[in-house]
Write a structure and sequence with these properties.
The complex is a heterodimer of chains A (50) and B (258). Chain A is mainly α. Chain A has one domain. In chain A, 86% of the residues lie in helices and 0% in strands. Chain B has one domain: Four Helix Bundle (Hemerythrin (Met), subunit A) (Up-down Bundle). Chain B starts with a helix and ends with a helix. With 258 residues, chain B is mainly α. The chains are: A mainly alpha (50), B mainly alpha (258). Chains A and B meet through helix 1 and helix 2 of A and helix 3, helix 4, helix 5 and helix 9 of B.
């Protein structure tokens, strides 16, 4: 590993990118799962009333 | 559903506890009670781990701030592998005992596990560029994790490729079990081959090569990611069971209509 080369690179865009992708995935997955869960329960409640 | 799962003496019989907890109705009740708590703890631990890693953990003496990517990359990698191990276990249970809950679990683990694997690959690629000078190298560790992503995608596609769900679950379960051979390859790839990827840093048998101020946020983020994975899978399984019940009720209502 070339330490001098590492020092000369601004690593923050790479760090921000990695954290951004992770946070977007976690929020997206949580939102999509929550929406599906509530929609499924609401439809089941409607079907049980038939 | 097997008879033992519905039997009043189910939990007391040999392996009865297993069938007891594999009952979809009972799973729905347990999931409804535990999901808010699971989600709350997962959120707190994940946010704590990510914030600690991004802002407060010390920079590495050699890699500098780039090592902060570790706090999202390593937990995602661990969850991706643990998710596939869970998928293989569910597939085994599905093939041997034909538990409907094992099939549902396998179906719902696939997309979540694929997501964590993709996060692992993208964050690793963004870590590789400043460290190795390349986003991607055909290194043994990277390639075996890419194969893991393809196995997840193959499992998702196979389940959706059959009109007959029972055939789909059986084919996907065989693929998942065959693909489990990739897990030890991922773990030991850094020992078996000369790789650009660094060796194992954490050891549960002693000799970890990471200082405590970096280990704590890593473990907290990892626990948060594991709980997030479990929460997402349990919620998706619960939704899938509700969707099946709805379909069955609507079909029954349609058949009763003169």
């Amino acid at each position: 590993m070339n330490e001098a080369a590492i020092q000369s690179i601004n690593v923050w865009p790479f760090i921000n990118g990695a954290y951004g992708v992770t946070v977007l995935f976690l929020i997206g997955a949580a939102w999509a799962t929550r929406a599906r869960y509530h929609r499924a329960r609401a439809r089941l409640a409607q079907a049980e009333q038939l | 559903m097997k008879e033992s799962a519905l039997s009043p003496a189910g939990p007391a019989r040999s392996s009865g506890w297993f069938h007891y907890f594999a009952n979809p109705g009972r799973f729905q009740r347990v999931a409804r009670l535990t999901l808010p708590w699971l989600a709350g703890v997962a959120l707190v631990l994940t946010v704590t781990g990510i914030v600690w890693g991004y802002w407060f953990a010390p920079a590495d003496w050699q890699q500098g701030d780039a090592a902060r990517i570790m706090y999202v990359h390593v937990p995602a990698a661990w969850v991706a592998m643990a998710g596939y191990a869970a998928l293989a276990v569910c597939s085994f249970l599905s093939l041997v005992w034909r538990h409907p809950l094992a099939d549902i679990a396998a179906e719902e683990i696939g997309p979540v596990g694929a997501g964590f694997t993709a996060v692992c690959l993208v964050s690793g690629s963004l870590w590789g560029k400043p460290m190795w000078g390349a986003y991607w190298v055909w290194d043994a560790r990277l390639t075996s994790v890419l194969i893991l992503l393809f196995l997840y995608l193959g499992h998702i596609a196979l389940i959706r490729a059959f009109d007959n769900k029972a055939h789909a679950y059986r084919a996907a379960a065989i693929l998942a079990l065959a693909g489990a051979v990739n897990l030890p390859i991922i773990v030991f790839s850094v020992q078996w081959w000369n790789t650009l990827h660094q060796g194992n840093t954490i050891s549960f048998t002693g000799g970890s090569k990471i200082y405590i101020t970096m280990l704590y946020p890593l473990l907290i983020a990892s626990l948060g990611f594991y709980l997030t994975f479990i929460t997402l899978v349990v919620a998706r399984m619960s939704a899938a069971i509700s969707e099946r019940k709805t379909t069955a009720l609507l079909r029954a209502a349609a058949e009763c209509t003169p």
